[in-house]
């Protein structure tokens, strides 16, 4: 199928934030990535910053215009 967008559904766990979920799924927690997820989930903002467990969140493919700066773990040379 041409133009099909895949949507993953994620179920929140205790004390998760939308930016953390976006970072794990997309490798980025940039504002436009989080906003894209919020737009796919109308009303998600009513839960606040810390999401309750058991909320189903749609995680659609990102548009090509989204910022996808890779999130990297901080490491030192001697760690």
Key phrases:
single chain, 79 residues, alpha+beta, two-stranded antiparallel ribbon, two-stranded antiparallel sheet
Strand order of the largest sheet: 1-4
Number of helices: 2
Q: Tell me, what's the shape?
A: globular
Distance between the termini: 47 Å
What is the overall pLDDT average?
83
The fraction of residues in strands falls at: 15-25%
- State the helicity in percent bands: 10-25%
Rg (C-alpha, Å): 14 Å
Low-confidence stretches: none
* Count of beta strands: 4
Task: Sketch the major β-sheet.
Answer: 2 strands, antiparallel
Q: Give the helices and strands as they follow along the chain.
A: EEHHEE
Content-based structural category = alpha+beta
Describe this structure in words.
The structure is a single chain. This protein has helices at residues 18-26, 31-40; strands at 7-11, 16-17, 50-51, 56-60. The chain has 79 residues and is an alpha+beta fold. A two-stranded antiparallel ribbon has the order 1-4. A two-stranded antiparallel ribbon has the order 2-3. The longest helix is centred in the middle third of the chain and has 10 residues, at 31-40. It is globular and about 30 Å long. The protein starts with 6 loop residues before the first strand and ends in a 19-residue tail after the last strand. The mean pLDDT is 83.
